[in-house]
Amino acid sequence: MLSTGALRAHLLAARLAGPVATSREVSLRSYRLFAARDPRVTLGLDPGRGWEELDLLRLMADKCGVSADPGHVSGPDVIDPERTLAGLDAFAARLADAARRRAPVLFGTGHPHRLLGFYAALADALSSVGCVVLTPAQGRCIDITTRFGVRTYNLDYVRGVALVREPGVRLPGGGTGAHCHSPLPVRVVLEAAALGRGPFPELVVGDHGWVCGAGQLGIEAIGLADTDDPALFVGEAEGRVSAVVPVDDAVRSAYYLPLTRYVLNRAALSQ
Q1: 66: left (phi over 0), alpha (psi -120 to 50) or beta
Q2: Are 114 and 253 in contact (CB under 8 A)?
């Protein structure tokens, strides 16, 4: 069992919390774009109120621990490790509830290079206690607008975790997939699940558009988010996202292993 103190130390040493790689400039740019309802940053969420830049800065200071000073405009951004720990506890509680109910669960990530192992371990644990880990729309093509124009991606699942692959990748079940913020993949998956004969997800676990897209449609969603991902925290503040863990979402994949162990233990899913 990893103690809270040991995990706090790990969060700081691995720069999962404390001063993180995400810069203040990048975070503030995201808040400006969100206030302008830019779909690249809203991630499928349709905010229920008008969020101005200062509103978002105050929200992110409360949820993540970033500086609330609008005059602080450069340098590394900061995540309070205590807020990360609290987020992990809330995240684990929702997993434990899903496990008790044997609820069907969908996992999806826009950060497969970094977070695939984290989600896959959770999927394995929930499957072992009787939850159905859903994989609808395997192989479906999805057109997603990128900075290079509209590109077609393929939906795939690795160890029960949905991701999208860049054009030309022909190794289903292998590789790491593409970085993606779009809510389109989760919408395609949920439509396929609704039209199919199998169960429909009662919980969506992931990041970026997977969480916001599901939450916007009224499905319980939980996930991880960095300081430049205000949409998930707005979703939580408005009651459409159940739990968000503030954490750097782009460090080495191995650095998330202690978080996996902590969450599984808190959710009573450790094997």
Answers
A1: beta
A2: yes
